[in-house]
Amino acid sequence: MASSRPSPEARHHRSPRAAPLHAAAIRAWAEASLAAIGQERAAIDALNVFPVPDGDTGTNMFLTVESACAAIEEVFDAAEAAAARPTVSDVSAAMARGAMLGARGNSGVILAQIIRGVSGVLDAEGSAGLTGAVVAHALRAASDNAYAAVSRPVEGTILTVARAAADASEAAVDEGSDLVEVIESAVAAAHEALALTIEQLPALRDAGVVDAGGQGLVVVYDALLDVVTGVRRSRPGVTARTKLPAPHGVHGAPIALEGEPSYEVMYLITASAAQMTTLRSALESMGDSLMVTGDDTLWNVHVHVHDAGAAIEAGLAVGPLERIRVTYLAAATAPTAGRGLVVVTHGPGTATLVTEQGAVAVAARPRRRPSTAELLEGMRATYAAEVVVLPSDSDSLAVAEAAAEQARGEGLRVSVIPARSIVQSLAALAVHDPSARFDDDVIAMTRAVAATRYAAVTIASRAALTSAGPCREGDVLGLADGDIVEIGTDILEVSAALADRLLSSGGELVSVVRGCDLTQAEVDDLDDRVQRGHPGVDVVVIDGGQPLWPVIIGVE
Q1: How do residues 7-52 score in pLDDT, each as one tens digit?
Q2: What is the topology classification, in CATH, of domain 11-233?
């Protein structure tokens, strides 16, 4: 568990008493939070014992932040199409609404309220810049919103962590602290409050863990500190536990724990505040874990009940419902048989290729990874009980893991193989054996991925200082295993240099995935250069058709 007080690293990076607040900064915090929760998602899931030990808190928080990020991207896309810049108001509103619409589970709904509280203050007070006082107001609004959303607040949860951060930030402002010191105080208090949750709830004490939702919030607040300071701090990973065994029933049918609600019901409802007061009273009598969040007209309802139909009917009596989700709180049974493959692809050529090999292709758009929902739909589209997922890039790895956790909740057996390039995914497909045992097939495909070194060429969109030195806009960048290692002006020269680099440690087969901007003549030229420099090496050219990456290279 990340419970120690974070040390104030890089003091020379101190910000002034106020820092400019741009829409891009809000997007950066949302994206950093998503990446951080994605990295710790499984460990946070494993902490989950309260209020229901269903092991999905990290996944639910990830899905909530992912929805907020998607809403932010829509604002940026619309602004780009109109040749305009998105405003702080537009982005903060989108983040709040996206989180509310995508909120999942207890902690996801509370996190959406926290995000809504922060967003409202940034919209109202951030135009003059980001100050310690603005941060303190935002964290207080976040805490107040979170408590207001819960019908019966319980201490030792994410609520306690949120309040501790708000209290500490206000105290720091009173002491005259600057912006970074205020955030550091809030983050330190959040860590300390998290560590104490293990003694505040019997369920946590018995399991020997901190609160999962509180742990997720600490990760989000850590990301805020990193974004504001520009310094990514090294923190210990979340210390998890082994998940509690799922309850079992006769002949494998799941059962609910005696006396506990059997269903989680969530929906969006359009109603007035007065109508929601009536609905809240009705739902309180039906179950527990009731949370109602929203604004003047659109509300998100979450409740655990024995009778899902009654909870839905109570909502329908008040107003129209959308996005109704009913989840059985015990484990689901699995489909009967079969094994499917899901591969993330970045161009029409590779999508056709993997489809011809029997896999489901999930397309990634330029500069946009697939969503959790798209990957989950891809897994369902295999109609198989066992599914292997190949993310094909680092950015999609955490999303694939989150989607896999959702699929496991539906009874699928899923393994995500950490393929970080399409050439690694293709190498895994080449050794896939549907007749082998699931574990043996996964091991063989994982070994094929590990044995495939990869590189790619792209064009710099702006001047920057890279690991290979400074680059200018329009320069050709060569990346090997995710790091920039070559900078040049000619695509073929940089591609050939990358191939030489990969082959320097050996290799028998070179795969070249051609992008949509590379001509056949250029591909033939690259083939000749590799053959001349490395006689005896086989070169296979694949017409991938991907944008942004003229050349992707794999060496096996």
Answers
A1: 444 433 444 466 778 899 999 999 999 999 988 888 888 887 666 5
A2: 1.25.40
Of the pLDDT bands very low, low, confident and very high (cuts 50, 70, 90), residue 383 is confident
Q: What are phi and psi of 32, to 5 degrees?
A: -65, -40
Contact, 490 vs 464, CB < 8 A? no
Which among 512, 419, 363, 364 has a CA at the least distance from the CA of 431?
419
- Do residues 428 and 396 lie in contact, with contact meaning Cβ atoms separated by under 8 Å? no
Neighbours of 390 (CB within 10 A): 29
Q: Coil, strand or helix: which one is 146?
A: helix
Strand, coil or helix: 341: strand
The CATH code of the domain at 339-450 is 3.40.50.510
CA 460 – CA 73 distance, rounded (Å): 21
- What is the per-residue pLDDT across 313-371, written as a single tens digit (0 to 9) for each? 888 888 888 888 777 765 444 444 688 999 999 999 999 999 988 899 999 888 788 88
d(C-alpha 283, C-alpha 140), whole Å = 28
Show me where the domains of the chain are located.
11-233, 261-328, 339-450, 453-555
Q: Using N-to-C axis directions, what is the helix angle for 57-81 and 105-125, rounded to 10°?
A: 40
Which CATH number among 3.40.1370.10, 3.40.50.300, 3.30.70.100, 3.30.565.10 corresponds to the domain 261-328?
3.30.70.100
Single-letter amino acid, residue 409: G
Contacts 24+ apart (CB under 8 A), 444-449: 445/388, 445/390, 445/417, 446/417, 446/418, 448/424, 448/556, 449/390, 449/417, 449/418, 449/419, 449/424, 449/425
Pick the CATH number of 453-555 from 1.10.287, 3.10.450, 1.10.10, 3.30.1180: 3.30.1180
- What are the structure tokens assigned to 455, written together? 């590189």
Answer yes or no: are the C-beta atoms of 353 and 342 closer than 8 Å.
no
Average pLDDT, the chain: 84
This prediction's pTM: 0.65
Residue 258: CB atoms within 10 A of its CB come to: 6
- Pick the closest to residue 211 from 62, 46, 329, 64 (CA basis): 46
Q: Which residue from 317, 322, 278 is spatially nearest to 300, judged by alpha carbons?
A: 322
Separation CA 503–CA 508 (nearest Å): 9
CB 230 within 8 A of CB 224: no
